[in-house]
Amino acid sequence: MGFCKRVICFIFTAMSVKITDLGFTYQDGEAFRFPNVEVEKGQSLLITGPSGSGKSTLLHIMAGFLTPKEGDVRIDSQSIYQLSESARDAFRGEQIGMIFQQHHFVRALSALDNVLLAWIATGRKPDEKMAKEILSDLGLSSKFHEKPQNMSQGEQQRLSIARAMVKKPAVVLADEPTSSLDDANAESVGKLLIDLTQNHNVALVVVTHDQRLKDIFPRSVSLANAKMNSL
Ligand code: ADP
Ligand code: MG
Asked: Does any domain span residue 188?
């Protein structure tokens, strides 16, 4: 009985993203020591800090783009820096959805096709029905065939959320997703992100200096003390 309980406990507490003892230095010597963080599927975490505090650096380490000097990043129990670079790229394509302030949409393609493109990195067959469902959940049902550059900033941000969520990744990482939005759009995008995180059972990490999100997210961590003189 005790054993079964432990197994059940293990299944339900499996962390989707976990960073431990992360230290990083840029070549010019700028150094960071990041707080330990764990986020389960269906949960969200806000990481705050002023400009230059290392938010984007941390997100790029979590996405497997920047190799830490010390510590570990685990996504779905996989230690991503144990993977070869090409295996890490494939893992990222499959398991990590990214949302940036600059969206990098393909201008020649419709909103729907930009979302379908997200499947290419996974090698899986695009699921048009699911793409339309997510776009509709985000209030974009009338924009399937619109070009991204003809959409408002708030609509473009929702499109980039659809693109990140649609391949059902383990983790969604968002860098300043609301900083270019007005108050009403910032609040609605923040709430949509949290709702989708629960509905799609992904782990969400948002880094931002946008104070407006603090009241919306249930949990937050500050990077105010991450910068070091050296490691
Ligand atoms: P934030 O996203 O919180 O504004 P960043 O992670 O972008 O902060 O940057 C943190 C610090 O690291 C800044 O002082 C920045 O100048 C420095 N930095 C960022 N990218 C590089 C780089 N490629 N090379 C050297 N230093 C960098
Ligand atoms: Mg940044």
From this structure: yes
The domain tally of the chain equals: 1
Give domain status of residue 34, yes or no: yes
Give the tens place of pLDDT for each residue, 168-187. 899 999 999 998 888 988 99
**What local confidence, expressed as pLDDT, does residue 6 receive?**
47
Q: Residues 56, 61, 65, 70: what is their CA dihedral angle, to the nearest 10 degrees?
A: 140
Residue 176 lies in domain? 16-224
Task: Locate the ligand 1 atom nearest the alpha carbon of residue 223 and give its number.
Answer: 3
CATH code, 121: 3.40.50.300
Minimum CA distance residue for ligand 1 atom 19: 57
Instruction: Evaluate whether residue 1 is within a structural domain.
Output: no
Give the number of whichever ligand sits closest to the CA of residue 48.
Answer: 1
Residue 36 contacts residue 21 (beta carbons within 8 Å): yes
Ligand at minimal distance from the CA of 179 is 2
6: in domain: no
Q: How far apart, in whole angstroms, are the C-alpha atoms of residue 111 and residue 131?
A: 10
Buried b (16+ CB within 10 A) or exposed e, 128-154: eebbbebbebbebeebbeebbeebeeb
Q: Ligand 1: which residue has its CA nearest to atom 22?
A: 26
Percent of the chain with pLDDT over 90: 77
Question: pTM to 2 decimals?
Answer: 0.91
Neighbours of ion ligand 2 (CB under 5 A): 55-56
